[in-house]
DNA sequence: AAGGAGATCAACCGCCGTATT
DNA sequence: AAATACGGCGGTTGATCTCCT
């Protein structure tokens, strides 16, 4: 039953900083044999390290295609905007920053960007101006209302995101199975843009690139539909009944459209449709979201088209609709 | 020049999803 | 079906570096 015991339980394995000799051994071994199974690599390479440590050293430091040193302004902007879209999914963010590792990006975010945004009064989690300053003064009822709306909005976003990720994961599994069943062609295009450390799914490639292949794009749409359905069900199951659930459902649906329909430029029309479908107080927030999400996607599209990967064939043009806070941040950098 | 505080970043830890037996 | 290993991810730590007083 199961596999043989793990070497990581063995005593005497070295920890801590790597020496140049160890680096040399690891490098030489991988250059000659490839990393293969990380578990058995240390023994074969003559290293007293666990496989996990070797993998980390390779992916974060020794890999030849790693760019080190200062992040450029464009890279900083990319990180900020992708973080607004993806949150702390560093490996997914790293996919869009060639030659940068997820660990490096994570460190840079935590030590530089997060602080800068905070300093400028921008919440690094929500990427919106901080609202905690109004907590003390003013009418208690008005303050409470604003806070509850903000909380509800965040809750909607979180539930939507959760459902979306779930659908993406499902889609990735399906795409993988399809790829196995019908060889290369499309997988070659996908593998060309994935970083070795990334687990970004094919659906995500389709999501960002918009043209990773008709199959993937179509599949990504299907995932969005599933996500929206899940989100709608979640709304009905939980706090949001009737009209509120319908509004949330419509909002999530439009958001899915914006997220996935990267190759179409009619974002305004989508938001107009969303406004028609929705009702009540969410509309004001929808307008904010419009510029917010659109700017992020524009940036993603632009960066993808200017990079060598040429993932996308069409570029959304209104790049100046940059997330206002991030634009301010960029100006201050 | 010394030492304390803060910043940086490589590496570790623990968890999770998937693969394997 | 269950148990276990493996690979990968995000969060955290701690050694080292840099700056300030």
UniProtKB/TrEMBL annotation:
Per the record's keyword annotation, is Transcription included, yes or no?
yes
Under the heading PROSITE patterns, the entry gives: HTH_MYB, MYB_LIKE
Q: Low complexity bias: where?
A: 143-152
Listed A to Z, the keywords are:
DNA-binding, Nucleus, Repeat, Transcription, Transcription regulation
Gene Ontology process terms (BP): regulation of primary metabolic process; response to other organism
Name the SMART domains for this protein: SANT
| Location (main, coarse) | nucleus
**What is its subcellular localisation?**
Nucleus
Q: What residue stretches are annotated with the HTH myb-type domain?
A: 10-62, 63-117
Identification of the protein by name: Uncharacterized protein
């Amino acid at each position: 039953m199961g596999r043989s015991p793990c070497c990581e339980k063995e005593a005497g394995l070295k920890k801590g900083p790597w020496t140049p000799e160890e680096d040399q051994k690891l490098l030489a071994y991988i250059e000659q044999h490839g990393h293969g199974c990380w578990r058995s690599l240390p023994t074969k390479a003559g290293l007293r390290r666990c496989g996990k440590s070797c993998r980390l050293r390779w992916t974060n430091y020794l890999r030849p295609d790693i760019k080190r040193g200062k992040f450029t302004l464009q890279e900083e902007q990319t990180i900020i905007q992708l973080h607004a879209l993806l949150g702390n999914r560093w490996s997914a963010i790293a996919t869009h920053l060639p030659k940068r590792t997820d660990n490096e990006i994570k460190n840079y975010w935590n030590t530089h960007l997060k602080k800068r945004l905070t300093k400028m009064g921008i919440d690094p989690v929500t990427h919106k101006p901080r609202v905690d300053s109004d907590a003390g003064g003013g009418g208690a009822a008005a303050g409470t209302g604003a806070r509850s709306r903000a909380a509800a909005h965040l809750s909607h976003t979180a539930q939507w995101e959760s459902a979306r990720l779930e659908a993406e994961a499902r889609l990735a599994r399906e795409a993988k199975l399809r790829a196995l069943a019908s060889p290369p062609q499309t997988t070659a295009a996908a593998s060309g843009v994935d970083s070795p450390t990334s687990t970004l799914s094919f659906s995500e490639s389709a999501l960002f690139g918009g043209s990773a292949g008709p199959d993937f794009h179509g599949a990504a749409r299907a995932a969005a539909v599933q996500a929206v359905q899940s989100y709608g069900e979640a709304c009905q199951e939980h706090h949001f009944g009737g009209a509120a659930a319908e509004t949330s459902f419509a909002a999530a649906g439009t958001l899915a459209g914006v997220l996935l329909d990267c190759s179409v430029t009619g974002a305004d029309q989508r938001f107009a449709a969303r406004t028609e479908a929705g009702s009540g107080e969410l509309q004001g927030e929808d307008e904010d979201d419009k510029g917010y999400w659109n700017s992020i996607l524009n940036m993603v599209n632009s960066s993808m088209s200017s990079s060598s990967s040429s993932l996308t064939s069409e570029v959304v043009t209104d790049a100046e609709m940059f997330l206002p806070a991030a634009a301010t941040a960029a100006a201050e950098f």
